[in-house]
Design goal:
Length: about 140
């Protein structure tokens, strides 16, 4: 996503490519080879570096950045989402083209989405991890 949005140049230069991981349990190492299983690798790049890159991009475009602002609610989620926030005691809002609700289980995004419309990425990631492990086990025993 960073590459596609034009913010990934430093990540491409400085990120660490990993083609798999090794899980250790029961006194044994169990390698999960991403390249072998799905033909892809991952890039390890620290979250604070992503934040630095995003801030640098906003500054380059002279776009506003809001620190010390408390998001209070989301409205118009189904049409044009708006984030309502308080900064320095005053209420404000930002209209969005899209909204990624990455504020955690107790954040303001979750209650703004209609029941049944939420997709939890952590659940799908956990499922994929389990599928990787099963594929490795099958491959190892075949």
């Amino acid at each position: 996503m960073l590459r596609e949005s034009g913010v990934g140049a430093r990540m491409q230069r400085e990120g660490l490519q990993h083609h798999g991981v090794e899980l250790r349990f029961g006194g044994e190492g169990h390698r999960i080879d991403f390249q072998d299983l799905v033909g892809k690798s991952i890039t390890v790049y620290a979250q604070q570096e992503v934040v630095k890159d995003l801030i640098a991009t906003r500054l380059r475009y002279d776009a506003p950045i809001f620190f010390e602002a408390e998001a209070t609610r989301i409205s118009d989620f189904e049409s044009r989402p708006r984030i309502h926030y308080v900064q320095d005691g005053s209420g404000h809002e930002i209209a969005c083209d899209f909204l990624a609700g990455c504020d955690g289980f107790h954040g303001i995004c979750r209650p703004a989405v209609a029941a049944g419309q939420i997709k939890f990425m952590s659940d799908s990631i956990r499922l994929r991890g389990w599928e990787f492990w099963r594929a490795c086990r099958r491959r190892r025993t075949n």
